[in-house]
Specification:
63% helix
Amino acid sequence: MKQHFTDEKTGIRYTLQGDYYLPDLALPAEEQQPIGIWGQRHLRHLKQNRRVLYANLLTSGKLNSYLADIDKQAEEMFSRLVKQMAEREGVTEQLKTDNQMEWVARMNNIRSRATEVVNTDFIYT
């Protein structure tokens, strides 16, 4: 038996594995970009809840760029929300120097609320 052959109809190359010919399939090359916490959370959501979208992105070679884009948008939205909420609620550098514990508590509250907004709008949709 031949070790390799190519099907003329489909153009797919096959390799002999034991008694069976299996197709030589490979994912398309994709530029690797760093993915932050938001992209990782969205990836976990896709794997658990949106399996078809995950499979389509993975097999088309667009998963990494999609997650990097989601991560960038989510990080920008998070930073903008934290800044806006801090300004609106009067959490300033002056408060930080006067009462550090209150500043930390209020900033943690603001960051927590901003995280919930980003999770709702970008990550778990």
